[in-house]
Amino acid sequence: MKRVVAISDTHIPKVKEDLPPSLVEALQGADLIVHAGDLVDISVLDRLRELGTVVAVAGNMDYPSVRAVLPEARVVEVEGKRIGVTHGSGPPLGIERRVLSRFAGVDAVVFGHTHSAHLEERKGVLLVNPGTPNDRRFSRRLSYALLEVDEEGIRPEIVWLD
Fold it and tell me: What pTM does this model have?
């Protein structure tokens, strides 16, 4: 079994808060860290890479230095399961349909953009929005997602930080 910690919308340095210590601890214990965009500054990617193996995508608020090295969407395989990663765009209404349409043949899609944690299965695909772990400007509750992945499936959990 592999432990995947998914985060999104950290917005550092625009958010004056750093990553919460309990999240940093979870990231250090993860087999894979997934960031679904809006890191903002490349230093966030560098910091995450110090904590573990990272798969990340660019979001709509990312600086050009981030967009130069990260794609807008990608697929990663974990324990034989295919996980699509994208940030998402547009209004919150209908975002699940839009992110799902970006991928074919995946078992799950991790996305962000709305700052609201969300778990749903649609058309046989698990949709995971980890919310935001540190940006209180747009979210009342801070969170990340934990995915336990093995050949049997993907078991998701939203972890609330407050």
Answer: 0.95
What is the spatial distance between Cα 51 and Cα 159, in angstroms, rounded to a whole number? 19
Torsion of CA 3, 45, 20, 93, to 10 degrees: -80
> Is the separation of the CB atoms in 56 and 73 below 8 Å?
no
> Which amino acid does the sequence have at 121?
E
93 — phi, psi (to 5°)?
Answer: -65, 120
Phi and psi of 110, rounded to 5°?
Answer: -105, 130
Q: Which residues pair with 76 in a beta bridge?
A: 83
Q: Which amino acid is at 53?
A: T
CA distance 109 to 125: 7
C-alpha span between 133 and 62 (Å, rounded): 17
- Report the distance separating Cα 56 and Cα 36, nearest Å: 6
| Whole-number Å distance between alpha carbons of 146 and 162 | 16
pLDDT in tens, 77-125: 999 999 999 999 999 899 999 999 999 999 999 999 999 999 999 999 9
